[in-house]
Amino acid sequence: MVPEVTTWILILLFLHTGIDKLAGLKTFTAQMERSPLIGAYAHALGILVPVGEVVTAMLLVFGKTRLAGLYASVFLMSVFTAYIYAMLKYSYHLDCSCGGVTKYLDWTEHLWFNAIVLALSILAAVCLSGKIQA
Asked: 10 Å Cβ neighbour count for 87?
């Protein structure tokens, strides 16, 4: 049950945020350019991040690629969570380049949201790989 519910949550989350970022690509990239941590990589990340989110969502849709999609979800959410933590800890300039519903959260709420989604992704991957059942 956990892998199925988590998978659908992740599909919706990654499709929504990926498409939102692609639809506003200029704004998304411009916001990332102002980031002290990733500004130098904004143009590459401007395409890689939303495409990675959409590809991850597609991997999650199909049974044969679902575990790979969960691993990709764990990777993406780990990177996103680490980035938010680093921004909160080390940056004075907090400009959100997030997409979807997360753009309405403040940075601390976003950190908690990501941590919960990351934990669910890990749990779903472990369950689907057969290591535990939930």
From this structure: 21
Does any domain span residue 52? yes
What's the whole-model pTM score? 0.88
Rg (CA), the chain: 15
User: Does the residue 134 lie in any domain?
Assistant: no
pLDDT tens per residue across span 92-116: 666 665 656 666 788 889 899 999 9
* Dihedral class, residue 35 (left if φ above 0, else alpha if ψ from -120 to 50, else beta): beta
Q: Looking at the 3D structure of the chain, how many domains does it have?
A: 1
**For residue 41, what are the domain limits?**
2-128
